[in-house]
Design brief:
heterodimer, A: about 45 residues, 1 helix, 2 strands, B: about 190 residues, mainly alpha, Rna Polymerase Sigma Factor, Chain: A, 8 helices, sigma factor (chain B), DNA-binding (chain B), sigma factor activity (chain B)
Chain lengths: ~45, ~190
């Protein structure tokens, strides 16, 4: 059988953001409330 | 069994209606593409994470304030936000570049401590004291000109005015002062270098 000289690519892992980053985004989303008053937006972040 | 994928548009609609889980699904679905895009423009994981986070903060704020108009193009919209943030990042860094130490690049190649170390400081002190002693040995008229020129940084014109002599006399006194200093230094074999 013909020998394969090409190397296996190592960069097969998908590039993904850190788990903490995702968690932060999801928590931020849960905490944020936008209240509209006439033509203004108020951002309320619940701690 | 074929899995049914809820379209992005519906997830966005659900999210706006208050379904927090819809956002998790959207992020999970597109994180690889968005993060890959950001990382391709800025190959630093920490910075890429920051931009990814800022992108979604912007997405969340827009969706929650109902300013998003759905045209069935959620991903391209997020990508455009990410792209704008990347541009912003580089624009900001152009003004204040951030350097990170790597194996090939040492931060100390551009960052040096120019202050003297303890030994050099002591030597400089000794030299200055020696020099002051020698200067005190000069004849008063020469010493005055030298002090005004070197320590007070006056021009020869000003020195001439202050001492009431012509500029040529002031220049001559400076010349003799330096010659006398050299003579004393040579005679006493004083080393005045650090």
């Amino acid at each position: 059988m013909a020998k394969l000289y090409s190397k296996r690519t190592l960069a097969t892992t998908k590039m993904l953001p850190k788990r903490e980053t995702i968690n932060f985004i999801l928590n931020f989303s849960k905490a944020l409330k936008v209240v509209k008053a006439s033509n203004m937006n108020f951002e309320i972040i619940a701690n | 069994m074929a899995t049914i994928q809820i379209p992005d548009a519906l997830l966005v609609k659900n999210y706006i209606a208050g379904d927090e889980n819809a956002l998790a699904v959207l992020i999970k679905r597109h994180q690889s593409k968005i993060y890959g895009f950001i990382y391709s423009k800025m190959p630093d994981r920490d910075v890429a994470d920051d931009v990814f986070q800022d992108t979604f903060i912007k997405v969340i704020k827009t969706l929650k304030s109902n300013s998003y108009n759905e045209e069935g193009k959620f991903l391209p919209w997020v990508m455009r936000i990410a792209h704008n943030l990347i541009v912003d990042h580089y624009r900001k860094n152009k003004k204040m570049p951030m350097l990170r130490e790597t194996e090939e690049f040492s931060i100390f190649s551009i960052l040096t401590d120019t202050s003297l170390n303890a030994e050099s400081r002591i030597i400089t002190d000794v030299i200055e004291k020696d020099l002051q002693k020698i200067v005190q040995e000069l004849p008063p008229d020469q010493r005055d000109v030298l002090m005004m020129r070197i320590y007070q940084d006056l021009s020869f014109n000003e020195i001439a005015d202050l001492t009431g002599v012509s500029i040529n006399t002031a220049l001559g006194r400076m010349r003799y002062a330096l010659m006398n200093l050299r003579k004393v230094i040579d005679k006493n074999q004083i080393i005045l270098t650090n």
